[in-house]
């Protein structure tokens, strides 16, 4: 199996920090590590978060976790983000401490957050400080400083959300349903190449297909089958744009028995054929 997820970490590294225009990631799902933070510093982009189309522009901050599917679709010439990408072991203790249900409700319901100028300046400083910890801090002090810095970030976000009274109502608490929906997204990323059956994922989650339907409708606004189909389209697009594999070989990679069926499926979902989509003129990266 070809690994074609886009990573913000250098080869052999578990951490990533820096500035990017995300152009190299176009058409590829992001490996969000344990936690990735984007702060848009210029321009704008069209991105998909859990298959929902969103616009990312200067001043927006994005919080991504391992159970959130993110892919950049188009970016403007001036688009730029500061990014911090951290593994699970760097954030799990901090995330465990953050028990506010409303906080998690908001973060998962609003992965792109608009900042004020003051908030933007503070987040910019946090990104630069975290980058210094990762790149220049003495190794024996790095983990403690990093853990404290991550905790400070999310505690501050929690405080700002409370101060501005933008939390969601208690009617939409992030309960077991949210957790299961996140696990479904994780399982889908792992198994979509070999299985596209709703019952397969429901069995993996130890729930019924009907319950999985209710979960995805509530959290993603789609049926499980629609979520699976969207993930497969992301995978096909990624292969088309980032490998030289033939359509036949891509179909084999994604466990389609008949390449012609994959072509029909792709055309039905996107309006173009796989060959047309691979044509550079059919997929502009400029907004």
From TrEMBL:
<dbReference type="GO" id="GO:0003700">
    <property type="term" value="F:DNA-binding transcription factor activity"/>
</dbReference>
<feature type="domain" description="HTH araC/xylS-type">
    <location>
        <begin position="182"/>
        <end position="280"/>
    </location>
</feature>
<keyword id="KW-0805">Transcription regulation</keyword>
<protein>
    <submittedName>
        <fullName>AraC family transcriptional regulator</fullName>
    </submittedName>
</protein>
<keyword id="KW-0238">DNA-binding</keyword>
<dbReference type="Pfam" id="PF12833">
    <property type="entry name" value="HTH_18"/>
</dbReference>
<dbReference type="InterPro" id="IPR009057">
    <property type="entry name" value="Homeodomain-like_sf"/>
</dbReference>
<keyword id="KW-0804">Transcription</keyword>
<dbReference type="InterPro" id="IPR018060">
    <property type="entry name" value="HTH_AraC"/>
</dbReference>
<dbReference type="GO" id="GO:0043565">
    <property type="term" value="F:sequence-specific DNA binding"/>
</dbReference>
């Amino acid at each position: 199996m070809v690994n074609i997820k886009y990573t913000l970490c250098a080869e052999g590294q578990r951490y990533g920090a820096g500035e990017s225009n995300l152009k190299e990631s176009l058409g590829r799902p992001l490996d969000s590590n344990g936690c990735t933070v984007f702060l848009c510093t210029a321009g704008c982009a069209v991105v998909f978060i859990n298959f929902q189309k969103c616009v990312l522009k200067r001043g927006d901050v994005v919080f991504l976790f391992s159970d959130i599917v993110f892919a950049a679709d188009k970016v403007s010439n001036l688009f730029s983000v500061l990014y911090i990408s951290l593994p699970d072991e760097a954030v799990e203790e901090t995330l465990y401490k953050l028990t506010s249900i409303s906080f998690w409700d908001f973060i998962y319901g609003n992965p792109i957050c608009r900042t004020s100028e003051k908030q933007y300046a503070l987040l910019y400083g946090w990104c630069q400080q975290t980058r210094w910890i990762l790149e220049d801090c003495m190794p024996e002090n790095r983990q403690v400083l990093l853990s404290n810095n991550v905790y400070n970030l999310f505690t501050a976000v929690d405080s700002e959300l409370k101060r501005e009274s933008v939390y969601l109502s208690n009617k939409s608490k992030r309960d077991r349903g949210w957790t299961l929906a996140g696990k479904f997204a994780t399982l889908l990323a792992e198994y979509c190449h070999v299985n596209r059956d709703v019952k397969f994922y429901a069995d993996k989650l130890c729930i019924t297909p009907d319950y999985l339907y209710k979960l995805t409708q509530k959290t993603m606004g789609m049926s499980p089958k629609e979520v699976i189909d969207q993930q497969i389209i992301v995978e096909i697009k990624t292969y088309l744009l980032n490998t030289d594999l033939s359509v036949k070989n891509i179909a084999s990679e994604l466990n389609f028995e008949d390449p012609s069926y994959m072509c029909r499926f792709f055309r039905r979902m996107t309006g173009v054929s796989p060959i047309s989509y691979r044509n550079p003129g059919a997929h502009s990266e400029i907004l």
